[in-house]
Amino acid sequence: MLVGQVETTGGDPLVALGVLALSVVSVVLSVTIAAVLIRGYRRGGAHRGMLWLAVGLIFLITVPELLRVALPTATDVGSTGRSILVSGCELLGLGTILWTVYGGELR
Question: What is the Cα–Cα distance from 99 to 90, expressed in whole angstroms?
Answer without folding.
Answer: 14
